[in-house]
Design brief:
This protein has about 290 residues and is of the alpha/beta class. The protein contains nine helices and eight strands. Strand 7 (about 225-230), helix 8 (about 240-245) and strand 8 form a beta-alpha-beta unit. This is Serine aminopeptidase S33 domain-containing protein.
Length: about 290
């Protein structure tokens, strides 16, 4: 076999290894919730509702005791590889402040249905399905959305296409899915030469161009966004928050939290007071 054939064979093997790496790296852990709002002393309902493709989502609908506020539930969205349990600290504080909540497991996470793979696009579809579910129960939009990491990025994208979803609060959201993956090491090092091919493979599998999904290209369509980001975030670099703010055309505000990373921002003493003030202000403006 000539050297050209050997070169072609080697490149084919290298490309195949890149696709295999992409397939494996894409897999997210599916861990069921171990705790629920009842363990916080809260009154809640376990709910199931439909999403795209005939799949079902598992969630918790929690109302504050004796709630007479007439507030619509806040939709809470976890991050990659997590589940609704991740939102329990948020459920507790929001409930104490009189906000009903709907937290759910995104597709291919927690107890919700499998669906081949997870993606930001599917997270966004599930957020819109949550709004559909709340409306089916007689709840009145708009519904505020609070999302973590990919859940926050998906909330921006979903809200840019659905006026029922506002305002939006994000924690550690990324500006562009491609750049978020690169920051985590995907498409770098050994696979850098074929990164464009691998990203096109991802787009084919997701069913949308990453540029079209990018929150920084859609955030200006969302009326009000509070961007919260840890200044020491090593998962989603703080530059993503600055890019989102720049793309919002004045419709977003940014709180960069010193000495905090990707998953501990909610431990900052000022975190929940700022979030509650933002939600209350926007709810009052909408009424």
């Amino acid at each position: 076999m000539g050297w050209i054939a050997w070169l072609a064979l080697g490149f084919a093997a290298y490309l195949g290894l890149g696709f295999l790496f992409t397939w494996v790296a894409w897999r997210n852990p599916r861990v069921p919730p171990r705790k629920n709002p009842g363990e916080l002393g809260l009154n809640f309902q376990e709910v199931w509702f439909a999403t795209v493709g005939g799949k079902r989502l598992h969630g918790w609908l929690t109302f504050p005791p004796g709630d007479q506020s007439g507030r619509s539930p806040v939709i809470l969205v976890h991050g990659w590889g997590r589940n609704a349990e991740r939102m329990l600290p948020y459920i507790r504080v929001l409930s104490q402040a009189g906000f009903p909540t709907l937290a759910f497991d995104a597709r291919h996470h927690g107890l919700s249905d499998r669906d081949g793979f997870a993606s930001m696009k599917k997270f966004a579809e599930d957020i819109r399905a949550a709004a559909d579910f709340l409306e089916s129960r007689g709840e009145k939009p708009p519904f505020a959305v609070l999302g973590l990491s990919i859940g926050g990025s998906a909330a921006i994208y979903a809200a840019s296409r659905d006026s029922r979803l506002q305002p939006v609060v994000t924690v550690g959201a990324f500006a562009h899915p491609r750049d978020a993956m690169i920051a985590l090491g995907f498409g770098r090092f050994i696979f850098a030469p074929i990164a464009p091919i691998l990203f096109r493979f991802i787009e084919w599998r997701v069913g949308a161009r990453l540029d079209q999904l990018a929150p920084e290209k859609n955030i200006a369509k969302v009326p009000a966004v509070l961007l919260v980001h840890g200044a020491n975030d090593t998962v989603v670099p703080p530059s993503h928050a600055q890019r989102l703010l720049a793309g919002a055309n004045g419709r977003a505000q940014l709180w960069m939290v010193p000495q905090r990373g990707h998953s501990d921002v909610h431990l900052e003493p000022e975190f929940f007071p700022k979030v509650l003030a933002f939600l209350s202000q926007k709810a009052a403006a909408a009424s």
